[in-house]
Amino acid sequence: MIKMNIPDFYKIYTPITAQPFENSEEHTEIAPCDALKPFIRCFWGSKKPYVKTGNNSRLIIPDTCMDIVFNIDYTDNRISNRFCGIDDASFISDYTERQGRFVSAFGIRFYPWSAIVFAEEDIRSVKNGFFDVGQYFPKLKKAIEPRLFDTVTIADRIKIAEDYLLKNLHSERLNMTVLTALDMLIQRKGNVKIDFLARDLHISKRQLERLFREYMSIAPKCLSTLVRYQCLWQETLFNRGFNFMDAVEKYGYTDQSHLLKEFRKYHSMTITDAKTKALKDVAFLQDK
């Protein structure tokens, strides 16, 4: 039996980005309405249109989420979009070509289990991929994209997106075996053996892998490792008493070297450098 209802998932697992404290005119994150909180991690983007200047690069870490992104270019009077599948590696997102342009952005971030609830096509092959939104969400693209020029604030765009998402939420597409597996995986912070997970669910390992790929486009072992990394990243940021040896035991790493190596693999830098980069936004907000 699943130990918690679907709405409870987001209460104990809230994935974060490399810069979770950023809150500027160019980028902010806003929680959805209560009815969408089990499915939408956040809405994000620019608060209003702005002239793009300065460094455009941004570190994107594997946060176990999937995103729909709309980039609005008022200079050229055009909108570009993309659907970003779940990633298992970090990369640099660079918009240097937009320097000096009058632009804005709007994004919708799904949890790993929730993109299937809104998608109109099979999502089993979206891992590490970038696609036109219309390929997997044609109705959403048609309903939201044409209205982005006329609704310039992120608050107004969220209203449009929430209205669409609430009317097109298909929770019946969720698979109970996958949700039960997610329950175990999240409760254990990713520190779980897939063989044992399959055994507890009374299915084969191959069946579990097939279900995870069908509903989330990722293998259970890969997702469990990413959940562990996300939980570790959050603990290093929010737990002032963070201790490496305690974390090694808690998350099932072989030793401290294993922990540090895996963190660097997914974050592209050391824990110290990652914290310094993230906390710069806190210092900036305090100085304002």
The proportion of strand residues reads 5-15%
Structure summary, number of beta strands: 9
Helices, by number, come to 12
Number of domains: 2
How does the helix and strand content classify structurally?
alpha+beta
Oligomerization category of the chains in this entry: single chain
- Write down the Rg: 19 Å
Largest sheet: 7 strands, antiparallel
Q: What is the string of helix and strand elements?
A: HEEEEEEEEHEHHHHHHHHHH
Q: Unreliable segments (pLDDT under 50, ≥5 consecutive)? A: 1-5, 284-288
- The CA-CA distance between the termini, in Å, is 49 Å
Question: Rough shape?
Answer: globular
How helical, in percent, are the residues?
Answer: 40-55%
**Global mean pLDDT:** 92
Summarize the structure.
The chain has 288 residues and is α+β, with helices and mostly antiparallel strands.
Could you please describe the fold and organization of this structure?
It is a single chain. With 288 residues, the protein is of the alpha+beta class. The protein folds into two domains: 11-167, no CATH class; 176-287, Orthogonal Bundle (Arc Repressor Mutant, subunit A). Helix content is 42%, strand content 15%. The chain is built from twelve helices and nine strands. The chain has helices at residues 9-12, 115-118, 133-136, 138-144, 154-167, 176-187, 194-201, 205-216, 220-238, 244-251, 256-267, 271-287, and strands at 28-30, 40-45, 50-51, 58-60, 66-73, 78-84, 91-93, 102-110, 130-131. Strands 1, 2, 3, 5, 6, 8 and 9 form a seven-stranded antiparallel sheet that branches. β5 (66-73) and β6 form a beta hairpin. The protein is globular, with a radius of gyration of 19 Å. Residues 1-5 and 284-288 have low confidence and may be disordered.
